[in-house]
Design brief:
It is a single chain. The chain is mainly alpha-helical and 381 residues long. The chain has a domain at 11-184 and 284-347: Methane Monooxygenase Hydroxylase, Chain G, domain 1, CATH 1.20.58. It is built from 16 helices and no strands.
Length: 381
């Protein structure tokens, strides 16, 4: 018989530790703690618990994306997408938590703010690790020099936390995993395109028949827009550029030559193909994966903006407790600390469905739910 002590709810959840982890700093010299400080502590502790769960989800996603191949005969891709959905739900929930914090009035915040120096939300190691796991590098952050002042001023990271953040940035990330995954997408293998009927056989700009024809179709559509005057650029007194790249030039740069800052031309071409043909069953999950990454990026930007907006309401233009310029620093992070923004270049080059290249039958068969027998034949057998 099992002689172990029966599991008890509060013991399993370690509630004694969690519920005894709120110690307001304003309760000093026999003085009662400021009433609003308890709310401030609990909301931020809740943020940190959710960051821990996001890290847990991202670890498994990164592990799967960095495999040599994702087995389509398993649920691996659906698990990746499902866990990205979970991360989306968590960040949405965190954004809602600001509504609770905003029930605190600025004067009530000042009752305990001076006790927080030099601690700051900037020092949230877990949030920085989440950003790094997604793919944000130090050189891409707003005010990266502030992160490096770990020993030179109060309000920065301590040595251990900075080391953990640096380790996370040097480790595998979701961004690198997605790049690896896009680069090995098999649907451009020449064998699959042998029966493809090119609309522009005399104007091939790439060995990749899909992107070659798509470029010509896109250039054709842009010429049609120019004839209608739709793309005519109005003069701008602040625009000092003598020549502006045409949409066709930009297309060549992204998909045939240099790619973007984050993705190679090959990787962007794969992402474009997935976005355009995501209605095929085999591309549904890859389509959802790419859209989930963009949504996570948007929701994190919204989280940063809500943080900025709340700080602006609470302290105006006052400096932050950690030594930054407060709301000004947070607004800079909103604008710069994005991770998957290069995927947003894709809709620039979308065409209407009716104008898309018609895929060869053997490739369509791979992308669809195809059956060797008809329903009638299966029943009769």
């Amino acid at each position: 018989m099992d002689t172990k002590k029966p599991l008890y709810y509060s013991e399993y959840l370690q509630l004694d530790k969690i519920l005894d982890a709120q110690h307001p700093k304003s309760a000093v010299n026999g003085k009662d703690a400021a009433h609003e400080e308890m709310l401030f502590i609990i909301v931020h502790q809740a943020f940190e618990l959710w960051f821990k769960q996001v890290r847990h989800e991202l670890c498994s996603i990164i592990e799967s994306l960095h495999k040599e191949r994702i087995d389509d005969n398993t649920d691996e891709m659906s698990v990746i997408v499902q866990r990205l959905y979970r991360v989306i739900k968590i960040i949405r929930l965190m954004n809602k938590q600001f509504e609770v914090l905003e029930t605190m009035k600025p004067l009530n915040f000042l009752d305990f703010r001076n006790y927080l120096y030099p601690a700051s939300g900037f020092q949230s190691k877990q949030f920085r690790i989440v950003e790094a796991m997604l793919g944000l590098k130090m050189q891409s952050r707003h005010m990266p020099e502030h992160y490096k002042n770990v020993c030179t001023h109060a309000g920065g990271f301590n040595q251990d936390d900075y080391a953990h953040i640096t380790e996370a940035e040097n480790d595998l990330s979701v961004l690198e995993g997605v790049k690896h995954w896009l680069a090995r997408m098999p649907f451009f293998h020449p064998e699959l395109w042998k029966a493809y009927e090119s609309k522009f056989p005399a104007n091939q700009v790439s060995e990749n028949l899909f992107i070659s024809d798509y470029y010509n179709l896109y250039e054709q559509s842009q010429q049609q827009l120019r004839t209608t005057g739709f793309q005519e650029r109005k003069p701008n007194e602040f625009d000092t550029r003598t020549e502006k790249p045409t949409p066709a030039d930009s297309f060549k740069n992204f998909f045939l030559e240099n790619g973007s800052g984050q993705f190679s031309a090959k990787e962007l071409t794969a992402a474009l193909f997935i976005q355009l043909y995501g209605h095929y069953p085999m591309l549904h999950l890859p389509f959802e994966l790419l859209n989930s990454l963009v949504e996570i990026d948007d929701l994190l930007s919204l989280w940063r903006y809500k943080h900025y907006s709340m700080v602006k309401k609470m302290i105006g233009a006052s400096p932050g407790t950690g030594g930054t310029e407060g709301a000004g620093y947070l607004f800079g992070a909103v604008q710069k600390n994005r991770i998957f923004s290069d995927l947003l270049v894709l809709p620039t080059f979308f065409l209407e469905k009716s104008k898309l290249p018609v895929l060869p039958k053997n490739l369509k068969d791979l992308l669809e739910f195809s059956h060797e027998y008809s329903i009638e034949e299966l029943i009769s057998n």
